[in-house]
Amino acid sequence: MTDGRRAAAVTPEELLDLDSLLTEEELQIREVVRRVVDDRVRPHVAQWYERGEVPVRELAVEFGKLGLLGMHLTGYGCAGSSAVAYGLACLELEAGDSGVRSLVSVQGSLAMYAIWRFGSEEQKQRWLPPMATGEAIGCFGLTEPDHGSDPANMISRARRDGSDWVLSGGKMWITNAPVADVAVIWARAVEDGAAGRVRGFVVPMDSPGVTAREIRHKMSLRASATGEIVLDDVRLPADAVLPDAAGLGAPLSCLTEARHGIAWGALGAARDCLHTALRYAGEREQFGRPIAGFQLTQAKLADMAVELQKGYLLALHLGRLADRGALRPEQVSVGKLNNVREALAIARQCRTILGANGISGEYPVLRHANNLESVLTYEGTSEVHQLIIGQRLTGLAAFV
């Protein structure tokens, strides 16, 4: 200390010197993504959010040039990056906005991953290269209007008609759907007159009988294109089926991929809120001095910084496990449950430090908080992840 009161300040990330845990390549990838978010997202995102519009195709092409779409996949124009590098990219993207990170997550970890993991070679060659460049946009149709946390009871059906499949049903809350070129749709296959296993289908969105309707009047994820997909006797050739996807385990494995990115991404929103609160507290004066100098404000900042670092260490551990091929679904649930929950708590606490200014669109805090309300429940609600962890701890399923 220089005068008994003021010491050199560090950022929350510098508190535990966590950059020392990353490789040079990981640091470089993080810096590249951070720059594109600073240049392409931050100057515009408040307006996108206010208008409820986002230039998905323009952003996808920008992200495609950097290799961010399907970046953790190999071949077919994908970057083949590590799981940790992908996580760091998600963190930086969500520091801009959760909706922007959702665009990348749905494209790469859901739609592209499903085709990459379960598709035929023809399907991979047809769709993955243009999806990797952002020329083609994908979406992932699992959630239904009446079946969110219970996909096993989906009502979408796929019946055989000669060599063709005919799909009927509907999907709801589908990111990228209003602008997508292709959808990975999950439905129960009707065989021998009875609904059997869940199958996946690669569905061009211009197929007759497919309608995508944008969901308006959202109070969260407004910088994201969200839609409903209606399937009205959509006729598909036999080769539309994902040949290696049979059973509910296939779409659930795709969700595991996406949840890993979310465990990282939520930290980006929290970090942006905390940085904003720190700057604001250092500049805002009350009773003759900056509010950052008051004990109650410092207690809030300290607690939030600690939780942010703990979440980062958890995400990094999960990423290292994934890079060793050792990451299990219940471990991803731990990351998603903890990091999103804590990120939302940080956003809400930061809002209190900003006071009335915390609700202003001039600051990102309430936008992040509103977005995190959606992140808390998509890709598995907190309650679902608690039950996944509980089942692993006890050996007993409590879902029904």
UniProtKB/TrEMBL annotation:
Q: Which of UniProt's keywords are assigned here?
A: FAD, Flavoprotein, Oxidoreductase, Transit peptide
Q: Which residues form the Acyl-CoA dehydrogenase/oxidase N-terminal domain?
A: 23-135
Q: Does Membrane appear among the keywords?
A: no
Which residue numbers delimit the Acyl-CoA oxidase/dehydrogenase middle domain?
A: 139-234
- Needs which cofactor? FAD
Q: Which Pfam families match?
A: Acyl-CoA_dh_1, Acyl-CoA_dh_M, Acyl-CoA_dh_N
What family is it from? Answer: Belongs to the acyl-CoA dehydrogenase family.
Q: What is this protein called?
A: Acyl-CoA dehydrogenase family protein
Task: List the source organism.
Answer: Plantactinospora siamensis
